[in-house]
Target: Large ribosomal subunit protein uL1
Amino acid sequence: MPTPGKKFAAARAQVEERPYVLDEAIPLVQKLKYTKFDETVEVAMRLGVDPKHADQMVRGTVVLPHGLGKTKRVLVIANPEKQREAEAAGADAIGGEELVEKIAGGWTDFDAVVATPDMMRAVGKLGKVLGPRGLMPNPKTGTVTTDITKAVQEIKAGKVEFRVDKTGIVHAPIGKVSFPAENLLANAHALFDSVMKAKPAAAKGKYLKSLTVSSTMGPGVAIDTSHVEALVK
Model:
């Protein structure tokens, strides 16, 4: 039986040394899958920005039209009135300062956190717990808000947060390998559109430098950046 290394090498050998258009790349990534689990399809976009400068930070959110193939567990930290709204919206865990204490004590059984502005003084204490996991509520990503219903429903529908890392790359999921190819394409288009619109005014030169699509365990497939730029214009 081939080892994982040999399986990866066999999959890599099927990828030509050229940039693909997206319509070719997505079905290829699906075809190259060699594991038994339903892998996530991921995108890596190298941007022409220097994230060390605050005015070149790229971050934002996008609601993927076909979701991510799993429903996120949403935690809401709010005042009693907004807690009732959160319950009606379908939040999975709801509370006030007692939830902050529970998280501070090591509880992390959730995938997203939404908070009302009046609770941020208490939530701010959780920076060391939530920050490294990318879960700290933030007004820029719509997770510090008084519109709890909208925030919860968007996250449940497949809202993805993206943020450029210190090397200038945005990593983001666009669905599962088992999705129909057209659903992955639609999700990819939505993500590209949002990242391109988030281009900082201070960014000079070519913004989208390179782009790769891959599954969790599979090889990367390079995408023709000019093709993507034409798609989102």
Remarks:
- The longest strand covers residues 40-47.
- The chain has a mean pLDDT of 91.
